[in-house]
């Protein structure tokens, strides 16, 4: 019996920025967009101020997926890129792939 060790396959890069200075607060890598968005929203509640934003990029394809902006009174605004709006299948590709896990178990 052989055990194959695999490293995580990161597909999404999430970068948290300060509004005025564009200073990078935090950079995280995620395997799936489905987990990147809610986790970064949680972190934004802790680390972000009004006007800060989080940029989501595809590591595999090199495209910007969207922005999460922090607004007044703890509200958030999500803006998806025109590429994602025109091709929802791109987000499907960024979602969990059941075949990926079964190949390595």
Q: Can I get a quick summary?
A:
The chain has helices spanning 33-47, 82-86, 88-94, 98-102; strands at 12-17, 24-30, 53-58, 64-70, 76-80. It is built from four helices and five strands; from the N terminus they run ββαβββααα. It is 30% helix and 30% strand.
What does this structure look like?
The protein is of the alpha+beta class and 105 residues long. It has one domain (12-98). It is built from four helices and five strands, in the order ββαβββααα. β3 (53-58) and β4 (64-70) form a beta hairpin. The chain is globular.
Q: What is the radius of gyration? A: 16 Å
Structural class comes to: alpha+beta
Beta percentage is 25-35%
Continuous helix count: 4
Distance between the termini: 12 Å
Total individual domains = 1
* Mean pLDDT over all positions: 81
Number of strands: 5
Unreliable stretches (pLDDT < 50, length at least 5) are 100-105
Helix content: 25-40%
Q: Order of strands in the sheet with the most strands?
A: 2-1-3-4-5
Largest sheet: 5 strands, antiparallel
Q: Give the overall silhouette.
A: globular
Helix/strand order: EEHEEEHHH
């Amino acid at each position: 019996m052989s055990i194959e060790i695999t490293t995580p396959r990161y597909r999404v890069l999430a970068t948290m920025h300060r509004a005025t200075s564009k200073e990078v607060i935090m950079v995280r890598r995620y395997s799936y967009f489905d987990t990147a968005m809610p986790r970064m929203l949680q972190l934004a509640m802790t680390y972000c101020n009004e006007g800060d934003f989080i940029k989501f990029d595809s590591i595999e394809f090199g495209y910007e997926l969207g922005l999460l902006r922090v607004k007044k009174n703890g509200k958030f605004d999500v803006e998806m890129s025109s590429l994602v709006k025109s091709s929802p299948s791109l987000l499907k590709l960024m979602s969990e792939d059941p075949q990926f896990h079964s190949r390595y178990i």
